[in-house]
């Protein structure tokens, strides 16, 4: 009996020792854990591999998205070549499609880190992207409200185009016999016209996000007001047909850019209050760069669709 009691006593002391060793372990910084989990999780040095199912599943989603965008780009290239007889523009759209498709295939096979960077970048920036979309929606509501009180911003939009670019710089620009300015849109025109707002939305972080906020709200006001003005003169279906095809790619691109700007502002705030050890890390720069490049490629795809496909779809969906 006494030996059994001693054994129990020894086991109790050993258990207490193990408990004490657990309590003596240093506390883990949850912020650092979240940073590591979002950036680039390190492999298990003990030799066992972490569960791969969730990451693999997310990578499949991103691969499918890239391949879908590639199909759209290649289809756009075919449309440009057949309908518009513009081989240079068709080649540009085809190159974009091949690049997107290659990224999806390579990410699923030999370089899964590419899709992982996109996934972790999206996970980190997703709340800020949705916040940017909400600001844009607020701008649309304000634009509609301005129309309700008699404000028409269509002339402002035209003045912005002519003042910033000049009639002589408009692609295919000129004056027809009636005296009206003609405009033959090209993808390069829309890329050149839409890339600065994309970059300014990111760089607005240098103004603590104020410039980014103004860009999102102003664009929403302008689009909301002009859309309702033109919709009143024609029909809402026409406006949806004219904005929807390229807006499906252009608006998420702008939201991603603004989300990157807002996320950086948040990181600056975390660094100031001391909840973040470093403002920049290699992992943060890698995943953010991947997301920004993806967003800009969406902008390029939107430019090809807007220049060569939108009007065709609008004529089919809503004959004018």
UniProtKB/TrEMBL annotation:
Q: Which UniProt keywords apply?
A: Membrane, Transmembrane, Transmembrane helix
Per the record, a Pfam family?
SpoIIM
Asked if the keyword Protein biosynthesis belongs to this entry, the reply reads no
At the top level, the lineage of the source is Archaea
> InterPro entries under this entry?
SpoIIM-like
User: Which portions of the chain have biased composition (kind: Basic and acidic residues)?
Assistant: 1-47
The record's region (Disordered) falls at: 1-56
Recorded hits in PANTHER family, A to Z, give:
SLR1478 PROTEIN
Indicate what this protein is called per its UniProt record.
Stage II sporulation protein M
User: Which species is this record about?
Assistant: Haloterrigena salifodinae
């Amino acid at each position: 009996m006494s030996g059994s009691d001693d054994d129990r006593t020894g086991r109790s002391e050993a258990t207490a020792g193990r408990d004490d060793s657990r309590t003596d372990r240093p506390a883990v910084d949850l912020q650092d854990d979240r940073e590591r989990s979002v950036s680039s999780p390190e492999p298990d040095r003990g030799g066992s591999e972490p569960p791969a199912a969730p990451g693999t599943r997310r990578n499949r989603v991103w691969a499918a998205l890239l391949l879908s965008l590639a199909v759209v780009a290649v289809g756009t290239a075919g449309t440009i070549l057949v309908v518009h007889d513009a081989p240079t523009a068709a080649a540009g759209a085809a190159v974009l499609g091949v690049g997107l498709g290659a990224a999806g295939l390579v990410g699923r096979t030999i370089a899964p880190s590419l899709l992982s960077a996109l996934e972790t970048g999206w996970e980190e920036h997703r709340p800020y992207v949705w916040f940017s979309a909400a600001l844009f929606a607020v701008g649309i509501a304000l634009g509609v409200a301005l129309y309700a009180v008699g404000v028409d911003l269509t002339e402002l939009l035209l003045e912005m185009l002519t003042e910033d670019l000049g009639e002589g710089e408009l692609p295919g620009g000129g004056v027809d016999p009636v005296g009206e300015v003609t405009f033959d849109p090209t993808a390069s025109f829309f890329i050149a016209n839409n890339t600065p707002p994309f970059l300014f939305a990111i760089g607005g972080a240098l103004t603590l996000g104020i410039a980014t906020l103004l860009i999102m709200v102003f664009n929403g006001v302008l689009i909301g007001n002009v859309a309702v003005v033109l919709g009143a003169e024609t029909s809402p279906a026409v406006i949806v047909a004219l904005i929807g095809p390229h807006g499906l790619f252009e608006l998420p691109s702008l939201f991603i850019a603004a989300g990157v700007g807002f996320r950086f502002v948040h990181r600056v705030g975390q660094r100031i209050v001391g909840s973040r050890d470093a403002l920049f890390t290699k992992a943060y720069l890698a995943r953010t760069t991947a997301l920004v490049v993806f967003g800009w490629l969406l902008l390029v795809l939107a430019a090809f669709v807007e220049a060569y496909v939108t009007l065709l779809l609008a004529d089919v969906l809503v004959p004018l």
